[in-house]
Design brief:
The structure is a single chain. Strands 6-7-8-3-9-10 form a six-stranded mixed beta sheet, with helices on both faces. It is of the alpha/beta class and 219 residues long. 28% of the residues lie in helices and 26% in strands. The two termini are 23 Å apart. A hairpin with a 2-residue loop joins strand 4 and strand 5.
Length: 219
């Protein structure tokens, strides 16, 4: 599995502009984009996911072109999982329904009773069976994170993008969840691309680290 990214775009007007010009490639299973807030990390992640469209460049995952001058694959068809910084769980859906959401087409909510067998697999894997019928407001920070990660993984993406996945957790839980994520990645052989401003995340993930500053990848 490999990622090959080159993204160029400009935000803002003549009085205040931000230019993103990021290029990197990696075949490592854990890739970390590291840098301060405002460096362009989240924008890069959203462009890879297809949530924003660059002005130029390319996005290639495992040899498949998702974006270039002629191609712009829709976000839902990219085979990319995305874990938002605040997890973005649906508050009106249970844990099981949140996990199953990506397995349904259209806008119908997953059924509450007798969930898809694929959902049961992720409930068991992430030890969420006891809270399968709970809503996000009833969960701990760690349970919310595991639910968001399970939802991203359920459709079988080629790569999972994580936007500051530990920043919303308290310090004690943060360390445990770093270990859990690293162990899960190794066990399932996942391709992860994570962004963070925390050097402790970089050390814990122990992957290919690419520093992003002022909209560019450091040489």
């Amino acid at each position: 599995m490999s990622v090959d990214i080159a993204i160029r775009m400009t935000l803002g007007g003549s009085d205040r502009r931000f230019e993103l010009d990021v290029a990197f490639a990696s075949s490592h299973r854990r890739v970390v984009l590291y840098g301060p807030s405002g460096a362009g990390k989240s924008l890069t992640l959203r462009a890879i996911a297809g949530l924003v469209t660059p002005a130029a460049g390319h996005v290639r995952i495992d040899g498949r072109t998702l974006f270039d001058a002629r191609i712009n694959v829709a976000a839902r068809d990219r085979g990319v999982g995305y874990v938002f910084q605040d997890y973005a769980l649906f508050p009106h859906l249970t844990v099981a329904q949140n996990i199953g959401f990506g397995l349904t087409r259209g806008w119908s909510n997953p059924r509450r009773r007798q969930p898809d067998p694929r959902v049961r697999r992720w409930l068991d894997l992430f030890e969420l069976g006891a809270v399968a019928d709970h809503h996000p407001a009833q969960l701990s920070g760690g349970q919310r994170q595991r639910t968001a990660l399970a939802r991203a993984l359920a459709p079988g993406p080629r790569i999972v993008l994580l936007d500051e996945p530990f920043s919303a957790l308290d310090p004690a839980l943060r360390g445990r969840m770093r270990d859990e994520l690293r162990d899960l990645q190794a066990r399932l052989d996942l391709q992860l691309l994570m962004i963070t401003h925390d050097p402790a995340d970089v050390a814990a993930l122990d992957g290919h680290t690419i520093e992003i500053r002022d909209g560019r990848a450091a040489p």
